[in-house]
UniProtKB/TrEMBL annotation:
<comment type="similarity">
    <text>Belongs to the iron-sulfur cluster assembly SufBD family.</text>
</comment>
<dbReference type="InterPro" id="IPR055346">
    <property type="entry name" value="Fe-S_cluster_assembly_SufBD"/>
</dbReference>
<dbReference type="InterPro" id="IPR000825">
    <property type="entry name" value="SUF_FeS_clus_asmbl_SufBD_core"/>
</dbReference>
<dbReference type="Pfam" id="PF01458">
    <property type="entry name" value="SUFBD_core"/>
</dbReference>
<dbReference type="GO" id="GO:0016226">
    <property type="term" value="P:iron-sulfur cluster assembly"/>
</dbReference>
<dbReference type="InterPro" id="IPR037284">
    <property type="entry name" value="SUF_FeS_clus_asmbl_SufBD_sf"/>
</dbReference>
<protein>
    <recommendedName>
        <fullName>SUF system FeS cluster assembly SufBD core domain-containing protein</fullName>
    </recommendedName>
</protein>
<dbReference type="InterPro" id="IPR011542">
    <property type="entry name" value="SUF_FeS_clus_asmbl_SufD"/>
</dbReference>
<feature type="domain" description="SUF system FeS cluster assembly SufBD core">
    <location>
        <begin position="133"/>
        <end position="366"/>
    </location>
</feature>
Amino acid sequence: MTTANTVEPAVQPHRRVLANKGDIFSSFDVADFPVPKGRDEEWRFTPLRRLHGLHDGTAGEPAPADIAVDAAEGVEVHRVRRGDERLGRAGTPVDRVAAQAFSSFDEAVVLEVGRGAEAGAQDPVTVRITGPGEGRVAYGHVVIDVAAGAHAAVVLDYRGSGAFADNVEFLVGDAASLTVVSLGNWAADAVHLSGHHGRLGRDAVLRHTVACFGGSVVRVIPRVAFTAPGGDAELLGVYFADDGQYFEQRLLVDHAVPNCRSNVMYKGALQGDPDSRLPDARTAWVGDVLIRENAGGTDTYELNRNLILTEGARADSVPNLEIETGEIAGAGHAATVGRFDDDQLFYLMSRGIPEEVARRLVVRGFFGEVIHRIPVESVRDRLTDLIDAELATVEL
């Protein structure tokens, strides 16, 4: 384990001028990264003082991670140590916390879906990650490897309390598909920082969803890379931030080969209480899509919409599109932060629906566009129930 006493190198290679967003420095060694500061671009929204030392090495001695797997037929589950050749293939940590997690986990979980297998078609494979407990810290690492021609659905179910940092790898082979949902329903004190790395083969399909409903601070960084033509990645997200909660998603879709498709759609709602002693409800979304010079025929779009339900809430939304070739099928992005759609509200009320009920229907419809895209029915139902529970506490 790398400790807080590690001497930082005199030369910081990640401070070089970047050719593009995909050229960001990465390393498995925590010593290669300086301690994050509030003025650093990649940390400028994050409340560093609330991370319980995950970012600067002061988090203390870690407890063992509690990671349980409910597997399905066609899935092999392996528990391996650091240094196993199956680790680190999808991507390398791009920040200090992710490198600290890679240097500090006790045991990694590797899920291997065999060639041509169908896993989780009815009930998804569930990886249940439980926090170490209030005042404690733990680190984890999960690899989901879907072989060529195989299909799998996996839920990463985060729960409990304490501070937790992890890396998750998704390897999707040629003509394979993976549906994965990262669902965070943490206790109120929890802090979770997670780096996701997806690597897609020829004609591979990744359906990736991040859902945030609990915790004090949750920061998820998905990165997707295409390695051969025909890849298709859909990155979805839903989040509902209450008073005292901070949720951040900072993603990159890296188109480096021709004729791949990506679609990004994240939607969030926020409710706060300006009279409480808790920090305001806060979210930050940064979406980067890079189309490299050799990625002709790319078709991509990214969307982030945020619904402010009360005072005492703030959402930051930063979509970025970097294009190095004009030979593309299509590219675009959009982002909004606002309140209710008054036209929808008027339409419902004009048909006799009470205003309070109409407002809740508008919020459910707002999230429904994302949730209906998730192909696993049990996950759709669970997310709908979580949104209903949030709405039950809102005075709209």
